[in-house]
């Protein structure tokens, strides 16, 4: 029988806090489950390249918050036959020493049932969940089911989020606070605006949970810029674009390695 | 039909499932709509514009020859006679005036058949607001003439090439653009769908259909109220507006979905485009494409209040096939001289099927909302009838 490493994977926030305490800037790459035949190899390679956690996108047919790259990655994964069940079975087999975070849309979670969905995440060794279109106000029942199953629910903060609400997001969510650099969809950008720094500062002022900036992190420059204001970055579209263009696991991982190196200097 | 709960729910349905970035925009919109709707000046301006610009009230026309043939007394609420050719103008004038009051300079809209896009382009021109309309590439092709009309009116039409390239994809794309522009642009959703407050707000703007029809039926019918009130349902705005005028009467309320897009008839509860409602989806929760001859009903979901009306039993929902719809279109054209939109012909298709059966016994009185005119469909119908 294959041994699964799910029991060994660390809890999300504890792990990120520990890494942060070593003065390390955090790197969380994003991979759409099933985007390519070797997506699991990519996950493993990204961990070897210095990822502190991996965000796994469970593809949804109508991803409202995604720019064109992650839309295409989702569509390709679904065309290749990826489902939530298949993705979770596949990642349960991975032996990793960093946490896995599932990112998806409300409908997939609701369809499987909050309780059932979270139990299955947990059984697959996932320790965090980012429900991108479930805002604070709708998240209550999901967070309850997640807690029961030892899943930390990561909530997103946006530049438009007022301070009192940021505080609630930081309190009610766990794992880390996912701060969106822009008012916009996911996707690569050449530089980050003042909005990113402002939001990261406002979040940090109300919580000591790790704060990661995501959206628009396209390479070492934007990652470094973001990491000056936050505890680290989430990088998705830049990696998925390379996968969609047919780059090998080594080539795609090369970008993550460059970002890791650049972050060492922050 | 009452106000939703504070969290935007009609029974178990509705809510506000949007990315965090859009929460402030939804909250602001709710407050602004609430204030405007309670403000006699706003209500007065809307009523005046509906009258002097959109041509309201629209008449209720007895369908005399068709009634004689069917053995029922059929009345048509003529939204096809409203400016731009459908009921969509009622909602867009409301949202356009609200957007202007809120200081927004742009309107974003999704469109399926093009009727909502045309209405939005029209109101944008009237109020001096920039308009961008998102439309599935497949619909751009099917509704070529409407695309041209929107462009003539000064709007920019953006073809959407993702997914099934129809209304659902256009809606997702409109949301994506709104996230980036919510401080300057108002997203003018075309039906009783989307996150709170949209389903409620759009129903209130469409309530005028039902309220007018209630008064007109009182004049035309000895009993004052029809036995049955029927309307087609995609997202469900003309039906919601119509039902709002009759929900407190003895009239049976019937919504007619497209057989290939029957969210209530063959879907299950799910979350799409910001709200919880019946939805066509697979076991994994992936949204299924709707398939209908009518672009306006080619949507896998349905407004949350309709899901609630269905579950509570106050309204019932049936469906009509493409063939029945084409037959109905021709029938109405040849007996009453009215060329109706394919969407509206779904409601008529049910009347043709049900008349004389226990569903709609002979002698019944029926009010049918004819939501739009069929000129936009002429080229497509010609192809289909070949």
UniProtKB/TrEMBL annotation, chain A:
CDD domains, sorted: Tryptophan_synthase_alpha
EC number: 4.2.1.20
Root EC class: lyase
Classification via InterPro entries: Aldolase_TIM, RibuloseP-bd_barrel, Trp_synthase_alpha_AS, Trp_synthase_suA
Pathway(s) this gene product operates in, as recorded in its UniProt entry: Amino-acid biosynthesis; L-tryptophan biosynthesis; L-tryptophan from chorismate: step 5/5
A GO molecular function held by the record: tryptophan synthase activity
Catalytic activity field: (1S,2R)-1-C-(indol-3-yl)glycerol 3-phosphate + L-serine = D-glyceraldehyde 3-phosphate + L-tryptophan + H2O
One Pfam family it belongs to: Trp_syntA
Active site, renumbered: 55, 66
Keywords: Amino-acid biosynthesis, Aromatic amino acid biosynthesis, Lyase, Tryptophan biosynthesis
GO (cellular component) term, any one: cytosol
UniProt xrefs under NCBIfam families: trpA (TIGR00262)
Function: The alpha subunit is responsible for the aldol cleavage of indoleglycerol phosphate to indole and glyceraldehyde 3-phosphate.
Family to which the UniProt record says this protein belongs: Belongs to the TrpA family.
Quaternary structure annotation from Swiss-Prot or TrEMBL: Tetramer of two alpha and two beta chains.
Protein name: Tryptophan synthase alpha chain
Organism: Kineosporia babensis
Gene that specifies this protein: trpA
